[in-house]
Amino acid sequence: MTGACIFCEIVAGRSPAHVIAEDERTLAFLDIFPLTLGHTLVIPKRHADDLLDAPPDDVAAVARMAQHIAQRVRATLRAPGVNLLQATGAIALQTVFHLHVHVLPRYPDDGFHVSFDRRPGDPEALAALAARLSP
Predict the structure, then answer these.
(1) pTM score, whole prediction
(2) 63 burial class (0-12, 13-18, 19+ CB within 10 angstroms)?
(3) Which of 10, 11, 26, 37 is 20 to 30 A (C-alpha) from 45?
(4) What are the beta bridge partners of residue 83?
(5) What rounded mean pLDDT belongs to the chain?
(6) Is 102 a catalytic residue?
(7) Pick the catalytic residue: 47, 100, 102, 113?
(8) How far, in Å, are 4, 96, 134 from residue 127 at the CA level?
């Protein structure tokens, strides 16, 4: 890691955050640029640049906490749905290079949009790709 990581600073208590949950491996706090009401970030306390850099046990702990937060926001804020968003790499829109999962409670007309411009894949190309990616 080069430079100061804002999420490591939050874990260390040197930067403020609105923490809503914590356990021995993870921290969950409200995003200061919320996309929806209750938008929460879940991070491992130990620094990892991204999903591919993190130890599997930390990834599992983040997933468990993200599920817990999703359940909490659905019940408390009456969010009819929840998106979990994780970005790895700048091209995938990662802006803070410390593994984190966005827990985004969803509401009718909340203004947040995710778009999947889907088209069917070529069956032969899919079969060839599956062969390349299989063990």
Answers:
(1) 0.92
(2) middle
(3) 37
(4) 104
(5) 95
(6) no
(7) 100
(8) 44, 36, 11
